[in-house]
Design goal:
- By secondary structure, the chain is α+β, with helices and mostly antiparallel strands.
- It has six helices and eleven strands.
- α3 packs across α4.
- The longest helix is centred in the first third of the chain and has 27 residues, at 2-28.
- It is elongated, with a radius of gyration of 24 Å.
- The chain starts with a helix and ends with a strand.
Length: 221
């Protein structure tokens, strides 16, 4: 009995360690799509045109949805779902007149099954004259979304943070040495009496970058 208890505790410990490692991993990396892609599905003469788009803000989502509504003004439905943020907490679905949960929800299901974020999927339906029923609609919107994702190419990206710094021009060489050593991406820069830079670096390296820069900076935010 004691031996079984020890083995059980050991297994619990290993499982806890694995879960911690997975949690740390998801905080440092996330999965998204490489590029805009298109998909297609047809069922009983209804046509489903699908589009997967990389997005980062709700404003981008709104602009794209409006764009597709205008472009496919003669379609019957423009349904969509999106997921934003490395932690995958910001999402929304829209059935655009289809029966509740038969369009946006299965599209979101495809996003979730691929563990994707920073993505918008739009599926446009042209009605073919034959009703598909609840299960038929769910299957059709899911299939169209899958086709778009499979053509997009899934990539992993690091979770990054940005920092804006201001420093006196005589300190430029010291700051640039730190930038060269740690290799953050320079998003913006301005060199004058007071210099300004916006840097982007992996989240796990931000505190080290801040620490090295602090002694040279007039302003850090």
């Amino acid at each position: 009995m004691m031996e079984k208890k020890v083995i059980s505790e050991k297994n619990d410990s290993q499982l806890s360690t694995l879960n911690s490692q997975l949690k740390r991993s998801t905080q440092l990396l996330f999965r998204t799509i490489k590029k805009l892609s298109e998909g297609y599905y047809t069922e009983k003469r209804s046509r489903f045109l699908s589009f997967a788009l990389p997005v980062q803000t709700v404003e981008e989502v709104k602009d794209y949805v409006q764009e597709y509504r205008k472009k496919y003004y003669d379609s019957n439905h423009v349904c969509w779902a999106y997921m934003l943020g490395a932690e995958r907490l910001q999402f929304r679905v829209n059935d655009d007149g289809e029966p509740s949960s038969t369009a946006g929800k299965p599209i979101l299901g495809v996003i979730n099954s691929h563990v994707l974020t920073d993505i918008l999927i739009v599926v446009i339906r042209y009605f073919g004259g034959v009703k598909l029923g609840t299960s038929g609609l769910i299957a059709a919107y899911r299939a169209a979304a899958i086709d778009a994702v499979e053509h997009a190419g899934v990539i992993e990206k690091t979770v990054d943070e940005t920092i804006s710094i201001t420093f006196a021009y005589p300190l430029l060489n010291e700051v640039m040495k730190i930038v060269k050593d740690m290799n953050p991406q320079i998003l913006t820069q301005k060199f004058d009496t007071d210099c300004e830079m916006t840097l982007q670096i992996r989240q796990r390296e931000m505190e080290k970058l801040k620490s090295r820069l602090m002694k040279h900076l007039t302003c850090l935010k």
